[in-house]
Design goal:
single chain, alpha/beta, D-Maltodextrin-Binding Protein, domain 2, 2 domains, 5-stranded mixed sheet, 3-stranded antiparallel sheet, 8 helices, 34% helix
């Protein structure tokens, strides 16, 4: 890998968009790996939502994006690499109810924004099971949702994102073992990008330094 980068003269700026959970759970190890093999590369990271980052990518304001896979097929002009398949989980803390349905219907519901691509999975789960609940809060910030749940403010259906520590005290987790409701976190790049050497280096850094794939059966 180092030989490939040296011979390519890899340097300059590379603009990478990333959703919030990728910023904290995937990119720290990736950046460390990339810095070792491409010390002359300046990685500029732009945070954002999946749909806003894909718009940036479409307008060539960024070179690549780590986002949730959208609910529609992306144009064939883009290359897609799946980084993580994250099962849907129900987060709670000392909640009323003995099972998932009871916890959802007997406690305040903190909604992961149904307009977000990841939040659509939770919305679909509720719709499929005909569970009608009015959310007490609606957020497009998974880390904030986790904090609210730990404080006993309600329960929430969210993807098991990179960085979510299921072993920490104060959090009860029920895994929804159905791949229909999994969120896929993907690296999206233009197929005709002139930065292919950087993209290949980024892919390898993600594979060796990114967050581990959650166990799911």
């Amino acid at each position: 890998m180092s030989a490939e980068i040296d011979s390519s003269g890899l340097s300059g700026k590379f603009h990478l968009g990333a959703i919030s959970t990728a910023l904290t759970g995937i990119l720290p190890g990736t950046i460390r790996q990339l810095a070792q093999v491409a010390p002359k590369l300046l990685l500029q990271i732009r945070p954002g939502t999946s749909n806003s980052l894909f718009a940036d990518l479409s307008e060539r304001r960024i070179d690549a994006a780590i986002i949730a896979l959208p609910p529609y097929a992306l144009p064939r002009s883009y290359d897609i690499e799946v980084l993580r398949v994250e099962p849907l989980v129900l987060l709670s803390h000392n909640a009323r109810g003995a099972n998932t349905r009871e916890k959802l219907t007997q406690n305040p519901y903190i909604c992961y924004d149904a307009q977000s691509w990841g939040g659509l999975k939770a919305f679909q789960y509720l719709k499929d099971r005909k569970i009608r609940i009015e959310p007490f809060y609606e957020l497009d910030a998974l880390e904030a949702i986790e904090k609210l749940v730990r404080q006993g403010m309600g329960v929430s259906l969210v993807p098991r994102w990179a960085g979510l520590d299921l072993e920490r005290p104060g959090l009860d987790v029920d895994i929804i073992r159905n791949r229909r409701y999994c969120r896929q976190v993907v690296l999206v790049t233009p197929g005709d990008s002139a930065r292919q050497p950087v993209i290949r280096a980024l892919q390898r850094a993600l594979a060796s330094g990114g967050a581990q794939q959650p166990e799911f059966t």
